[in-house]
UniProtKB/TrEMBL annotation:
InterPro entries named among the record's database cross-references: HemK-like, Methyltransf_25, MeTrfrase_put, N5-glutamine_MTase, SAM-dependent_MTases_sf
Organism this protein belongs to: Williamsia deligens
Superkingdom: Bacteria
One matching Pfam family: Methyltransf_25
Name of this chain's protein: Methyltransferase domain-containing protein
């Protein structure tokens, strides 16, 4: 199909089983007419729409995402909401950054002193460099590529690390299994392999009063909170029903999250009425 109309695109997408055919057709209509037929064919063959068009919308911004790189999910906006009250003037480190969506949303809304982003996948850091032109984006295994001078200075450490248990990766939607790298999904036997390493090392990188915030699933949250507690962090489970997200937050010092620092829905999307809850509720999203 050379120059398909919007109606023709909707029809093709519906036939291919796309649930949001009308929305996706509108996005494809933004692409150059000459390319549209080929892009539609890729989408119909099962490639994620974000890879096909080269961008993903996250927290109100369009970010570059290349084929083969993890596509940020809306629930990860919960990490942004948790981090924002701590980010003004802060040193912000996004670990396992992917395209750098969380760091971008934080830097878009506050004035952090420094933003650093790390990922092991060079394709991901290529995207992150485009999305975070003012940040230090480095490729490597967790803290390994970071300068030791950064130790003790990180005020906000955020991570959406891989957390799908190895045995559950095969049950993920085809789009993820076929088009996102396993290194972005597989969190080891209990899903906590990468998070465990982050928690173990975090205290030596955090500043006094700094926070560590890690996205996880309802089932893993109590274990992750216990890991943080074992490292001397004051841990809390933050459930964000608004975006179906769940974050475990650890404070380096013994204070609990102050009420004024609890995340508010309005910090990410002005006008959104619901407010995330802070507590031990474990009824939230799964990977
Ligand atoms: C679930 S994806 C999330 C990406 C990004 N945080 C987001 O929410 O869009 C996990 C990311 O962790 C990265 N990753 C996996 N193991 C890593 C490691 N040992 N060190 C650094 N990054 C790692 C993957 O390459 C992938 O980009």
């Amino acid at each position: 199909m050379g120059h398909p109309t919007e109606q023709e695109i909707v029809g093709e997408l519906r036939a291919a089983g796309c649930v949001f055919a009308e929305d996706e057709a509108r996005v494809l209509m933004e692409t150059p007419p000459d390319a549209r037929g080929a892009l539609l064919a890729r989408r119909v063959a099962g490639e994620p729409l974000e890879h096909v068009v080269g961008w993903v919308e996250f927290a109100g911004a369009r970010l570059h995402v290349a084929p083969g790189v993890f596509v940020p999910r809306r629930r990860t906006e919960a990490l942004v909401r948790v981090a924002l009250p701590h980010a003004e003037g802060a040193v912000v480190l996004e670990m396992c950054c992917g395209v750098g969506a969380v760091a971008h949303a934080i830097a878009d809304r506050t004035r952090p002193r420094d933003v650093i982003a790390v990922d092991i996948d060079p394709a991901a850091t290529d995207c992150a460099r485009r999305n975070l032109p003012h940040a230090d984006v480095v490729t490597g295994d967790l803290f390994e590529p970071l300068p030791t001078a950064l130790q003790g200075t990180v005020d906000v450490l955020v991570a959406n690390a891989p957390y799908v248990p190895t045995g559950a990766v095969g049950t993920m939607p085809r789009e993820a299994r076929d088009h996102e790298p396993v290194v972005a999904l597989d969190g080891g036997p209990d899903g906590l392999d990468i998070a465990r390493r982050i928690v173990e090392q975090a205290p030596s990188w955090l500043s006094p009063g700094g926070i560590l915030a890690i996205e996880t699933s309802a089932g893993q949250a109590p274990s992750l909170a216990a890991l943080m507690t074992a490292q001397g962090l004051a841990a809390e489970i933050v459930v964000d029903d608004d975006v179906d997200g769940l974050v475990v937050v650890g404070l380096l010092v013994g204070a609990a999250v102050h009420p004024e620092n609890k995340p508010t829905a309005a910090t990410v999307e002005p006008g959104t009425p619901a407010r995330p809850t802070v507590g031990t509720d474990t009824e939230a999203s799964t990977p």
